[in-house]
Amino acid sequence: MIDKIKNIKNLESGNFFLIAGPCAIEGEEMAFQIAEKILEITNKLKIPFIFKGSFKKANRSRIDSFTGIGDEKALNILKKVGEKLNIPTTTDIHEIKDANLAANYVDILQIPAFLVRQTDLLVAAAKTGKYVNLKKGQFMNAESMSHAVKKVQDSGNKNILLTERGNMFGYRDLVVDYRGIPVMKKFAPVVLDITHSLQQPNQSSGVTGGRPEMIETIAKAGIATGVDGIFIETHFDPKNAKSDGANMLNINNLEDLLIKLVKLKQITNSL
Question: I want to staple 152 with a disulfide (CB 3.0 to 4.6 A). Which of 56, 126, 133, 189 is the partner?
Fold first, then answer.
C-alpha cells in the first residue's frame, strides 16, 4: 500500500497513516516545530507519518493573499525536515514544471482537487516516479476518480493515493459523502482530508472560512468507514496562520484526537 514510501515507519501497527503539517511553509523554524511535535505524537501512538507543507499557494481567493516564501526556499525547508527527521514529505504542485522541481525535494506529489482533471499535470507527476496523491475534485463523484488513477497508471506509475475532501454543497459549504470511500478504495488507498472537508469557501471577504469544531466528527466517521489514511492541517497558532487558518487544527489538540482515532481503528480492525 504505502510501504514503498521512503522512510515511512510504524507500518506494523495496523493503524491508519497520517499526512499532517501546516497549510503552507511559512519558515524553517515553524516547519521544524510542527514536524517534530507531530513526529513525537505519532511515534508514541505508532502511527505512520508523512509531513505535509505547501511550498507555494497558487489557488488563493485574493491577489493579496499569502502565496509563499519563495519556491526554492520552501522546498529546501521541506527537504531539510525530511532528511533531519528521517520522515517522508509531501507538497502540492500546480503546474507541469512544478513536478520535476518538487520531485527533487519531496517523496509524494499532491495534485490539488481543482486540478485533478488536468491530464498533462497528472502525467508529469506520474513520470517523476514519485508517489502521486490525487485529491478528488469538489465537483467529482468517487467513480470518476478511476479515470484520474488510470492516467497516472498509464503513464507508468502505480504508486497512487486518493484523497477525499468533500463535495460542494451550495455555494459556501462542503459535504463528505462517505459512500465514496469504499468505491475509491477499489482504485487505490484512500485518505480523508479532515480539515479541507470543513472549509467554507467563497466568503464575501475573500478569506475562506471553516468549521474546525467538527474535525473530530469527520475524522471518526472516516475511520469507521475504512479510510487508509487521515490528512490534517495543523498549526501552533491557526488564527495567525498565513493560509487556511479557519479550518486548521490547533496542534495542541492533535494528540487527544489521534488517541481516539487509534482506539476506533482498533475496533474496526476487529470487525
Answer: 126
| Strand-pair category, 199-200 with 160-164 | unpaired
Q: Is 13 exposed, middle or buried (0-12, 13-18, 19+ CB in 10 A)?
A: middle
Which of 133, 86, 127, 88 lies closest to 109 in space, CA to CA?
133
For the question of whether the overall pTM of this predicted structure is more than 0.85, the answer is yes
Residue ranges per domain, the chain? 11-207+228-270
CA dihedral 245, 193, 157, 189 (to 10 degrees): 160
Q: Which CATH fold would you assign to the domain 11-207+228-270?
A: TIM Barrel (3.20.20)
Using 50, 70 and 90 to split pLDDT, how confident is the model at 251? very high
Q: pLDDT per residue over 199-211, tens digit each?
A: 766 555 545 556 7
- pLDDT cut 90: percent of the chain above it: 81
Helix/strand/coil (H, E, C) string of 120-148? HHHHHHHHCCCEEEEECCCCCCCCCHHHH
- pLDDT tens for 39-62 read 999 999 999 999 999 999 877 666
